[in-house]
Specification:
By secondary structure, this protein is an alpha+beta fold. It is built from 13 helices and 42 strands. The chain folds into five domains: 141 residues, Sandwich (Jelly Rolls), CATH 2.60.120; 102 residues, Immunoglobulin-like; 285 residues, Glycosidases (TIM Barrel), CATH 3.20.20.80; 70 residues, Immunoglobulins (Immunoglobulin-like, Sandwich), CATH 2.60.40; 93 residues, no CATH class.
């Protein structure tokens, strides 16, 4: 029978030109330099090596090695012989060791995350960690065994089809094996055990079961899981020879019905089931993507606390342990491959192989309801015929491999809604950042209302939205670009209302649940991080906006005082904001009841302050408290952009008939002299925003949107621009006369 053994200890790691040292897997070499900013983390080929004695194998046994994640390309050698080469950093692959084993063995794995034009991802707003960052195992099986190598398959495939009226499910179970005569299929049900035997034909066996009075996988309320098993036999086990199974594989599965409606959104098991949730990157501060089950469980606990019904696992295949947790907890999942930002003609085959592996390895998870073809792929590439053909090929592949789930895409906000690319997948979604990167908050609802009116037959979702917030920064009067917790709250309050009023959105996903590494970013007071998360990258601090969504989605009673990190307050009357999912909140100031309010989610109180005050909010049995202090001057530690923009002009020197930073970028681009100045400035600003900013610089639709922005508003958004640089730029523009 099959035996699996972790193979994670005793490895040696070596980068070119450096001494080797011992590591225990999982491991990434970018845990530190991939998170510190500068876009200079090391990308190249490193070697993992390990010596081991030949395992004890009988004559009818063979040995395989399994890699759950090797980023981004791996070449595996045993005793100098290449036994595997795998392109793609997020999926499982295996190789047989048996023919190459010696008494003492040298295993070498060359792992490469260097830049190339073949393997996705190459341009994106996150760090491409290198390493053997998931577990490695040895698997011993009989020579006759279920398939192990093809696309990292689990060897068993389960397809349930639910009849809600009859309360039953037809379940097709398939398995593939290289040798053997027949397969005994089993399904554990609450009433006992279902069994069927099927002959192997062409290496494939299949059986169809009916589960009566089926218990549904029903989201958060009851994510019930069945278990299916396949046992491989040399002869039919019913022939009376009492033969033992040669191999056995199993898979948990759930029985559920899903439906997507262009007017009413997502349906689970015949009822409306709004998918409201977040996206997740898999990395952590200080350890990168080399996670263990402990970190995965901690992340899921935070998802459950939030009350989300859905996760977008972006932008790549994540650990099987995490899909398992989604199954167990009833979280509906959008799964996708890292076909992102920039189309590469030489990467077509890699998108196909990564999609084959994603569907093959994640097929049995009931939590997964759609396959994501790509993300923001037109940010740095036109939707030409090559790009279209690649997407059509992926779409067809998904439909061939899985007739039960739709395909989807996350479109960049610059993509025109009449682009033919939107018609390729079964359902669609847009990443919109109006009110953060460009435009106003109101443009979010305008976009969806116009889209839904123009394409009423299309199913559309909201796949990304967010605003960066550094918990160190705060504002009495928050505005876009100040990186304050307060602006992040205002942003999400607006977007949550947009979502509530548009039930046709099949799914909505906050970008992001956690801050994550983007080594190309140097902004918002932190280098190397995208700070749109509702929770910090170390998972130690939940930002105030986290509790807004908890108030909207969670049934667990709570109350939260916002602004606790803005202890020093210069105003005489300060706003105290409370988030809660309870209908009534009582506010106490210095243990005296100040006011009570009834409402929903958001409660605000204007409180006079004159010294140090203890503020306490109560809602039923729940309470939260904080301290505020009246100060004479604003605490400058709370301010990210300390430049007072109104002082960038000396009124007596300002010449309205000449160009200035108050002009729009579109106006400045019309004059050759000011256009040259503008491009020089923009090139420098893009350097602090990472690869995506550089790659998307020539996007025509983005340029159209930015043409409406003034330089003044751009500096507000960017922040951190030295005052002397702004004055020098404005002085140069003021020397150029208009007209």
């Amino acid at each position: 029978m099959r035996n699996r053994k972790l193979f994670i200890d005793g490895w040696s790691f070596e980068k070119p030109g450096e001494a080797s040292f011992a590591v225990t897997l999982p491991h990434t070499w970018n845990a530190k330099d991939g998170q510190d900013g500068g876009n200079d983390y090391w990308r190249g080929t490193a070697k993992y090596s390990k010596t081991f004695p030949k395992p004890a194998l009988s004559e009818d046994e063979c040995l395989f090695i399994e890699f759950l994640g090797a980023a981004m390309e791996a070449r595996v050698l045993l005793n100098g012989k290449e036994i595997a080469n795998h392109a793609g950093g997020y999926s499982t692959f295996r190789a047989e060791l048996t023919p190459y084993l010696q008494d003492e063995n040298q295993l070498e794995v060359f792992v490469d995350n260097s830049s190339n034009d073949r393997i996705y991802p190459q341009k994106a707003d996150f760090t491409f960690y290198g390493g053997l960052y998931r577990d490695v195992s040895l698997i011993t099986v009989k020579k006759a065994h279920f398939e192990l190598v093809k696309d990292g398959t689990p060897g068993i495939k389960v397809t349930p089809s639910v009849d809600l009226e009859k309360k039953c499910a037809k379940v097709t179970v398939e398995a593939w094996a290289n040798l053997g005569d027949c397969v005994l299929f089993e399904i554990d049900i609450e009433a006992g055990l279902l069994q069927k035997t099927a002959a192997l034909s062409g290496g494939h066996a299949e059986a169809v079961f009916t589960i009566e009075d089926v218990r549904l996988w029903d989201g958060l309320s009851d994510p019930y899981l069945y278990t299916a098993r396949a046992k491989l036999y040399a002869k039919n086990p019913g022939s009376g020879d009492n033969s033992e199974a040669l191999d056995e594989v199993s898979a948990r599965f759930g029985c559920r019905e899903i439906r997507f409606d262009p007017d009413e959104g997502f349906f689970l098991n015949g009822r409306s089931y709004p998918l409201r949730g977040v996206s997740r990157h898999q990395d952590r501060l200080g350890i990168g993507n080399a996670l263990t089950i402990r970190e995965h469980r901690e992340d899921m606990a935070i998802v459950r606390e939030l009350g989300a019904t859905t996760l977008r696992l972006a932008h790549y295949q994540q650990a099987q342990e995490f899909y398992d947790l989604c199954d167990e907890n009833g979280i509906v999942v959008w799964a996708e491959i890292p076909f992102i930002t920039m189309f590469m003609k030489n990467g077509r085959e890699n998108t196909i192989s990564q999609m084959r592996e994603l569907v093959t390895q994640c097929y049995n998870h009931p939590s997964v309801v759609c396959w994501g073809l790509s993300n923001e792929i037109t940010a740095a590439s036109p939707a030409d015929e090559d790009l279209m053909e690649n997407h059509r090929a992926l779409n067809d592949l998904c439909h061939r491999m899985d007739t039960t789930r739709p395909t989807t895409m996350a479109h960049v906000f610059m993509l025109e809604t009449d682009s033919p690319l939107l018609a390729v997948p079964d359902i669609g979604s847009y990443n919109l950042y109006f009110g953060w990167y460009v435009g106003t908050l109101e443009q979010n609802e305008e976009f969806f209302d116009e889209y839904h009116e123009k394409f009423p037959e299309r199913v559309i979702g909201f796949s990304e939205y967010g605003a960066d917030a550094n918990p160190a920064f705060h504002a009495k009067a928050p505005e876009r670009g100040d990186y304050s917790e307060e602006y992040q709250c205002l942003y999400h309050e607006h977007i949550l209302k947009v979502i509530d009023e548009r039930p046709y959105l099949w799914a909505t996903h906050v970008w992001n649940l956690f801050d994550f590494a983007a080594d190309g970013r140097d902004e918002g007071g932190k280098n190397g991080q995208n700070q749109k998360g509702l929770v910090t990258m170390d998972r130690k601090l939940k930002k105030d906006a986290f509790y807004l969504y908890k108030a909207a989605w969670s049934k667990e009673p709570f109350v939260h005082l916002c602004g606790s990190r803005r202890k020093d307050r210069e105003e005489e009357v300060t706003e105290i904001k409370v988030y809660s999912n309870q209908p009534k909140v009582s506010l106490y100031v210095d243990d005296v009841l100040f006011a009570e309010k009834e409402g929903s989610r958001i409660f605000t109180f204007d409180v006079p302050i004159s010294g140090t005050h203890e503020i306490r909010a109560e809602a039923g049995e729940q309470c939260d408290s904080m301290t505020v202090v009246k100060v004479d001057q604003p605490n400058e530690d709370y301010i990210f952009n300390k430049i007072a923009i109104v002082n960038w002009f000396d009124k007596e020197d300002y010449k309205p008939d000449c160009y200035s930073i108050k002009d729009t970028m579109g106006e400045l681009q019309q004059n050759p002299q000011t256009a040259a100045i503008l491009e020089g400035m923009m090139a420098k600003m893009r350097q602090s925003r990472g690869d995506v900013a550089e790659a998307s610089a020539n996007n025509a639709n983005l340029q159209k949107m930015m043409a409406r922005m003034t330089l003044e508003s751009l500096f507000k958004q960017a922040g951190g621009v030295p005052e002397e640089a702004v004055r020098a730029l404005n002085s140069a523009l003021q020397k150029i006369r208009k007209g």
